[in-house]
Amino acid sequence: MTIQPLSSDKLYRASELNGLPEDCKSTKNLTPLDEIVGQERAQKAVEFAMSIKEKGYNIYAIGRNGLGKRTMVLRYLNRHDPNGNGNALYDWCYVANFEEARIPKVLKLPAGSGHAFKKDIEKLMTRLVKALPLAFDNEMYYSRSEKLKNQLTEKQESALLTLTQEAKDHSVSLSVTTTGEYQLVALNGEEPHTEETFAQLTEEEQVGFEDTINELERKLRNIVRQLTELEEEFSEKIQKLNEEVALDVVSHFIKALMKEYKPLPEVIAYLKAMQADILENLDIFLEESEEQVALAYAALDKKMPRRYQVNVLVNQDDSKFPIVVEESPNYHSIFGYVENATYKGTVFTDFSLIRPGSLHRANGGVLLMDAVKVLERPYVWDGLKRALRSRKLSVSSLEKEVTLSGTISLDPEPIPLHVKLILFGDYQTYQLLQHYDPEFSELFRVTADFEDEMNRTDESEAQYAKFISSIVNDNKMLHCDRKAIGRIIEYSSRQADDQNKLSLHSADIANLLRESNYVAKSSNATMIRANHVELALSNQEMRVSRLKDHVMQTFTNGTTLIDTDGEAVGQVNALSVISTSDYQFGSPNRITATTSYGDGGVFDIERSVDLGGRIHSKGVMILSAYLASVFGRNKRIPLTTHLTFEQSYGGVDGDSASMAELCAIVSAFSQTPLRQDVAITGSMNQFGAAQPIGGVNEKIEGFFDVCGIKGRAPNQGVIIPQSNVHNLMLRKDIVEAVEKGDFKIWAIRHVTEAIEILMGQAAGQAGLDGTYPVDSILGQAQLKLNALR
User: What pTM does this model have?
Assistant: First the structure.
């Protein structure tokens, strides 16, 4: 036989760390990386998106969970100031709109000055609350208001005096009742007429009195109108006096603020509007209406009128670029909301109860969120698209969005929005959004595609060692010695299922380091060594391998039938992988093929009972095509073959058993026995070429473990496709067994090589007439088929 098993050095690629200096003994000697290793493509995408300020250049970061997407982006944002081109940051405040209370106004202030402005207004209010009552509680104000009152009284008395005298001249009395009404009564001498005395008057005298009183009433009405006008005039003069007095006080205190905030026209306009409003609402400060004052002062924090508070929604640090990570992206936490307050059983709301969301805090910077969490919450995705499209941020209640009711609520002015949104998600979510949401590609024009693995070279191993150092330093773990670094790199290569690749699943590496650190500290070690890493890996496997132990137990007690020595016709050991959510392991399966006289078809029992998947069925069809090309070029194959996985009661999918199935069929055709101490895995094409499969390490280890259970024999081994050799990162015990010659692994390029290994004879090559040599396996099969024909 010409096919030689693989040497032990092909089964595992140890990490020599040639890229590190020889004097580097541990991670203590390595500079930690401040970036995620191997993600240059994604990093360039982030850099590109951050440098473009136009609308729509938001980022969707694609990759499996645990690749360090968020960590990489945050490290990049914290390291490179994305605001290096000097984008101005602002504080945003809501203040009362004195013309329309339902629409609070937005004030834009330079970053860091929002709280200062709020304190300035609070100081102003504190002074006014004390100063305004004092301005109206002094002799000067009293004398001026008394003078106006006296003038009113004189004019009122003067107007009434003339009428009183005229009434007296006509024997009529003008008096004021206790209720404040004017009364005209006919006089009988000095006393008012009674009903009896008035009845005794002549009719002419009675009519005379009535005419006189009617005329006097008409004049009285005119005078009352004049009195009302005089009172209104007096009120206006008092109001003007109050405003003059208040204006002196208010303008004196507000003058300094006007000067300080002169460069900000919006603030100046607000201060002027506030001054005018204070003059119109002096009763709030003079405490003339208790209920009004109580509600005005029903603030939840400060003792000052609510309408003059400043609600600082966002207070930015002027030197720090805003980077916000939203862990729970519901509608209110992103877009903000309006609270309600209760005072004496009355529910009310105003601008001071507007609360910010994460978009407010990230305005001018970056907001990072998980795509799936965003899509899970109702109305959030539509709200985000609306905000990104309009570049405006409106605080609208969710109730208003989802109901048709016209509940009275605030409608605050929108805030201009300049934010970069970064969503983290997997490929499936990305494809769904691309397919079902036409706006997605317009709003998220940059895709940061995170790699699962990187090439394994001396340089990349050195980079990976620095990456390990950064995890150690960030988490304040014990340092790893050189051998421990090498073992972790080898583990990473095993995770990538490739000797020439390293896994970039940083969460796995971080978890392994944490567990190795725990093991090292438990043994009072001062450094993480290779044996600590091995023990941590062993502990990891022990925690998740319950199913594997259960499956292996079935081989121990003979429940699952398998032979690991001897020979059998139409029976071969194939290899499969069983997966749980966090663990996978290999297990051998017996495949059998039986033949009967028929039309040359291959009857796949798994498919017939709906236990075989589509890929498995495709594999059976491909091997059927290869069989037809080998044995049925000129005449139909006169046998029907029945093919099955023995003791398989669950679904079977994948085409990695194609070569094993073909070997079982050829054995059944030729009646040549197959070795049972050798298992085989591998797919094939229509020409018989071996194709690579997944899980090669687990499959080899699974058969090796079963051989240990059933009893070791000298020539046991596994056949794999040649194209899978670079995937080998096998366990240490298997590498040692191969090195000693106790176990063998053959790598083949064509299914005929597997036939030769399993049947111990040459497979044979077809001559020009399509026949195979009689002493070959395929020749013997052909002879038997010809006899049946």
Answer: 0.78
